[in-house]
């Protein structure tokens, strides 16, 4: 069982910092929490880069580099089985030029997005109204 694995390689950092803004792919039948996580991620990437990534269903992705959020087919194909995660468990995993952001339902997926934004992208939250991007 995966316990709060935090696996990041240089490729995952490059996804956000590249000139091209990545796609954010959600499972075709995404949960409200996965949609919220993807929306938060897109909002902060826009604040960081001044360009908002497109959020699409995974089946609409035609082989573009992407950030896969939630219980996607791509995550499952790479051994990430979110159904086995506890509610607070999360995982960040880079595969080539793709990034998997996964977590347990309901909080883990949000924790994964916030950890990525904080630990990789440098976003800081000081209180409800103050942050550093």
Can you put this structure into words, describing what you see?
There is one protein chain. 33% of the residues lie in helices and 20% in strands. It contains four helices and seven strands, in the order αβαββαββαββ. It has helices spanning 10-17, 32-49, 73-77, 108-120; strands spanning 23-26, 55-57, 66-69, 90-95, 98-103, 124-125, 131-132. The strands form two sheets. A five-stranded mixed β-sheet has the order 2-1-3-5-4. Strands 6-7 form a two-stranded antiparallel ribbon. Strand 6 and strand 7 form a beta hairpin. It is globular, with a radius of gyration of 14 Å. It starts with 9 loop residues before the first helix and ends with a strand. Residues 1-19 have low confidence and may be disordered.
């Amino acid at each position: 069982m995966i316990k709060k694995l935090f696996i990041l390689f240089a490729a995952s950092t490059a996804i956000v910092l590249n000139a091209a803004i990545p796609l954010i792919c959600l499972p075709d039948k995404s949960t409200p929490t996965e949609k919220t996580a993807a929306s938060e991620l897109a909002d902060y990437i826009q604040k960081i880069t001044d360009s908002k990534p497109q959020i699409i269903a995974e089946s609409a992705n035609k082989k573009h580099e992407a950030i896969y959020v939630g219980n996607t087919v791509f995550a499952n194909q790479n051994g990430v089985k979110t159904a086995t995660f506890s509610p607070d468990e999360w995982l960040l995993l880079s595969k080539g030029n793709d990034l998997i952001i996964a977590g347990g339902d309901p909080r883990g997926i949000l924790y994964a997005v916030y950890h990525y934004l904080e630990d990789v992208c440098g976003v800081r939250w000081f209180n409800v109204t103050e942050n550093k991007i």
